[in-house]
Design goal:
It contains 4 helices and 9 strands. The chain is an alpha+beta fold and 169 residues long. The strands form 3 sheets. A 4-stranded antiparallel β-sheet has the order 7-6-8-9. The protein has a 3-stranded antiparallel β-sheet with strand order 1-5-4, covered by helices on one side. A two-stranded antiparallel sheet has the order 2-3. The radius of gyration is 17 Å and the shape is globular. The C terminus is likely disordered.
């Protein structure tokens, strides 16, 4: 059953999917309508999942489940991935590519690139320890609410991509 993300507890399990490009308002609305319709009927082993969705930073779809009421199962997570795959095709964007790195460029806009390209940009000095990066691997609503989605490279697993010993500048 779909509920507002704000009504879910901090312990809710979270999945974050970044788009490889900015979406138009129409594309974003279509994505969110579809995801809300999906979580409204989302189940795990026949039990309705108490879940919510949101769009954050104008680039990330967030899906959260209150697993205290019913935990998501492997099959239910696979169903969400299939739904997102269909949305990728329909919208002509990537949502499931976990190899992309999202960061805030010098202009303040969110950019994304492959890990190899991120390393190359770090080599040229375009990316450094203070560059804000986004970590879509956070897995609780508490982490999202605490602002852990965006942090400097130096305080993220992304520091290993800087190509320097210990990830230091």
């Amino acid at each position: 059953m779909s509920v507002p993300l704000t009504s879910l507890p901090d312990s809710a399990r979270v999945w974050i999917y970044g788009t490889d490009r900015p979406l138009t308002p129409e594309e974003r609305d279509a994505l969110m309508v579809d995801l809300r319709a999906f979580v409204d009927i989302w189940t795990a082993h026949g039990a309705a999942l108490r879940a919510g969705v949101d769009w954050v930073e104008d680039r990330f779809a967030v899906v959260a489940v209150d697993e205290a009421s019913a935990p998501a199962s492997g099959c239910s997570i696979d169903a969400m991935a299939r739904r997102l795959g269909a949305l990728e095709e329909r919208l002509g964007c990537s949502l499931l590519d976990s190899t992309r790195v999202f960061y805030r460029g010098e202009s303040g806009a969110i950019e994304s690139c492959a890990r190899a390209e991120f390393r190359a940009r770090a080599t040229t000095g375009a990316i450094g320890e203070t560059t804000p990066v986004f970590d879509p691997t956070i897995d609780t609503l508490a982490a999202l609410r605490a602002g852990e989605l965006e942090r400097p490279v130096a305080r993220s697993w992304h520091r290993q991509l800087l190509g320097r010993p210990g990830g230091r500048s």
